[in-house]
Amino acid sequence: MKKILIALSSALLLTGTLAFAESVHNPQAVEHTKQAIIHGEAGHAALLVEHAKAGLTHAQASQQAEPSVHTEQAISHLNAAIEAGEKGHADTGTTHAKEALKHLEAAGKPPSHVAQAEEHAKAAITQGEAGNASALLEHAQVALTHAQAAEKESPSVHVQEAINHLNAAIESGKNNNAKDGTIHAKKALEHLEMTANSKQ
What we know:
By secondary structure, the chain is mainly α. It has eight helices and no strands. InterPro entries: SmbP.
């Protein structure tokens, strides 16, 4: 039991450290990218490059801490902004910096309740497939909390169905029935994914 608690504590500490690194670097990347845009719009290619490089450094650190498709795209556009700026093309560099900024801002947004419910539903499935009904129960309860919050923000048939299946998964977990709990968690995940897809 002690080993499990130590492993869990270490995992939480590492996750917290990575999240902190992401939360520190993303805003810095955003700020430097904004400065690159300001200087690029003023025709100052050299200053655009300076700020784009600083933004790139922070974006790369953010990507290392918490990989994101948006941060990856921002890195690509910052590299293009630097390349254009080094050739004296402030206008093209500014265009790429603006694209990078869009992606950095999207990457900096906290995950939606639907996304968090999905993650916990997946964890519930993993635990249920391992026969661990109590861990399935815990993750299903957290997923339910996020699904209910998502339902309050934007009512949806799929979120309501996910809530119904999460409640069933919780009941199965309380009855030490990992098999049925897993089935309901999978159904909940299907509905959560349909909700996420419909919002894209």
